[in-house]
Amino acid sequence: MAPRANWKGFLRLSLVTCPVALFPATSDSEKISFNQINRNTGHRIKYMKVDADTGEEVSSEDIMKGYKVDTDTYIEISRDELDAIALESTRTIEIDQFVPKSEIDELYLVRPYYIVPDGKVGHDAYAVIRETIRSLDKVALARVVLTNREHVIALEARENGLMGMLLRYPYEVRDAGEYFDDIQDVKITKDMLDLAKHIVQQKSGHFEPEKFEDHYEAALTELINRKRNGETIKPTSKPVSGDNVISLMDALRRSVSGKSAAAEKPAAAAKAKGKKPRKAATGQREMLLPIAGKRPAKAEEKRAPKEVKGKARARKAG
Are residues 157 and 135 in contact, defined by beta-carbon separation less than 8 angstroms? Predict the structure, then answer.
């Protein structure tokens, strides 16, 4: 089934206009998702819109938007009032500017869309806009309204189509200084840097997204299949990290050699296993006191023969 367009309207570059449709370039629909169910009945949980004070359900026609002024005060905004301030970008993607792609900070990137001609007309105008963007080796900045909000969108040529990347506004991007200012200025030695570079060289390759593996998604699939087959799933204990790296230099050297502290422990344990057990120190046995009210069984057995021997001597003397 073909995906549904998120938006339909017109793409315009000055007086050149063509009808287009926007489709999400990415999707999470293939990921496993869960519903909330009642543990006792197995029925799915559904949510109702209720009045916060009365607790009564409210129908959709009685619900409107409100801007919170303080704890109990809202400014009510009607649909007609929102329509009255609707921008032209609600139905038109107006190209305002062309900029080098390298100047767009990645922090401003939100979500990609495919922009395609809508219908049989307008392909010529679409091709003119696409090839103009491609020839300049730049991206076109435009405005579009999605979910009642105006967004800046960056358009670039991609194969025989156009891709639009939604961008954030400056007020949506947090200042890095608030997070990075307290990071200590540490001096890295040349040896450490050389080892780190060597690790990077060992792990260098090419961007091949087809090799990405979602391990958690695979584990979820296996879990569901096992449950469907009637298997009982027993909880497993979480692995405890055995690495206890003393220094950063030690960690870098182990990374280069491919050995970890956890890998070295079995060898050390095997070496220690071959040693003879240490002899107990004199007097150590006496320090192991029995629990009050109980006597060791061996002590009872050793004392019994002495008592019997004593009784035999008494009979002989008599």
Answer: no
Q: Which amino acid is at 208?
A: E
Sole residue written with tokens 């730049």: 138
Phi, psi (rounded to 5 degrees) for 261: -60, -35
Nearest Cα to Cα of residue 59 among 67, 48, 72? 48
* Residue among 122, 98, 85 at smallest CA distance from 10: 122
Give the integer Cα–Cα distance in Å for 86 and 80: 10
pLDDT along the chain (318 residues), means of 10: 83 92 91 92 93 92 91 88 75 92 95 94 93 91 89 95 96 93 88 86 87 87 89 78 66 74 53 48 38 42 45 46
The DSSP code sequence of 57-92 is B--GGG--EEEEEETTEEEEE-HHHHHHT--GGGTE
- Does the CA dihedral 63-68-72-73 come out positive or negative? negative
pLDDT in the model for residue 79: 85
Measured between alpha carbons, how far is 157 from 152 in angstroms, rounded to an integer?
17
What pLDDT is stored for residue 83 in this prediction?
A: 77
CA distance 43 to 47: 13
> In terms of DSSP bridges, do strands 73-77 and 139-146 run parallel, antiparallel, or are they unpaired?
unpaired
Residue 310: per-residue pLDDT? 47
Stated as kind and residue range, the H or E segment containing 97 is strand 92-99
Amino acid at 229: N
Dihedrals φ, ψ of 71, to 5°?
-55, -45
User: Which alpha helices (DSSP H) does 55-189 contain, by range?
Assistant: 79-84, 123-136, 177-180
Residue 158: exposure state from Cβ atoms within 10 A (0-12, 13-18, ≥19): middle
3 state DSSP class of 201: helix
